[in-house]
Amino acid sequence: MSAIASDFASQRQTMVDCQIRTFDVTDQQVLDRFFDTPREIYVPGSLQPLAYSDAPLEISTGPGEVRCMLTPMVLARMIQGADVKPSDRVLDIAGGAGYTAALLAGLAKKVVSVEPIASLSTLAAANFAKAGLNATAVCGPLDGSVGVSGTFDLIFVNGAVEEGLEPLFANLAPGGRLIAIQRIAGDPSGNAAKVMRFDKMAGEPSRRILFDAAAPVLAPFARRPAFVF
């Protein structure tokens, strides 16, 4: 192992022990995935030294094109709350260069990662192929309306939402789960948000709060301005 690889492995262990474990993540399979998955390869070169930071990483790929990677501790606790099963077919929304999908691929049967930024989707596909993962990268809109077929047992949203989840709910299989960070309507600061788990049972999906978190709102799921006379 090279000195650089060894240093990243050491940082990865510190991330698991000092960030993720201390945020009430106790599922050993989830912890193992975070240690076994090299986050640095899913982070653009200039940000690689910050790959194991406890801060969100904002990845810009051009004018107006930005994707924010969730902090490791928030991502880990979201995955734990998703109760991923070995038989699950997973749809990963706003997957960026594929880090979340890579983690989920070691827990689920199949992962489809959707990312509209072409350069990131291409990078995700290359990362999946190199690692031999059971994951597919799709370059398309975040509502899963292009390049995605069938229903999914789990839909994982890498970012905050305010509204407009109906197309994703339609892609959920009966008994499926959707995990997302939801901004709280009416909050005067505009920053209050909770990680929500939606379970598709009979009728409308039920929902429950898992924990507090924050992330930028993904544009397709932003609240539309109310019409004022």
Structure summarized in a few sentences:
The protein has about 230 residues and is an alpha/beta fold.
Report on this model:
The strands form two sheets. This protein has a seven-stranded mixed beta sheet. Helix 5 (118-131) links the parallel strand 4 and strand 5. It is α/β, with parallel strands linked by helices and 229 residues long. The protein is built from six helices and nine strands, in the order ααββαβαβαββαβββ. Helix 1 (3-20) crosses helix 3. It is globular, with a radius of gyration of 17 Å. It is 28% helix and 27% strand. The chain has one domain: Rossmann fold.
Low-confidence stretches: none
Distance between termini?
Answer: 66 Å
State the share of residues found in helices, binned by percent. Answer: 25-40%
Specify the structural class. alpha/beta
CATH architectural grouping: 3-Layer(aba) Sandwich
* Rounded mean pLDDT score: 91
Q: Count of helices?
A: 6
What is the CATH superfamily label?
Vaccinia Virus protein VP39
The CATH C-level class name = Alpha Beta
Q: Give the strand line-up of the largest sheet.
A: 5-4-3-6-7-8-9
Shape: globular
For this structure, the CATH topology is Rossmann fold
How large is the radius of gyration?
Answer: 17 Å
Can you count the beta strands?
Answer: 9
Q: How is the biggest beta sheet arranged? A: 7 strands, mixed
Counting structural domains, the number is 1
Compressed to H and E, one letter per element, the order equals HHEEHEHEHEEHEEE
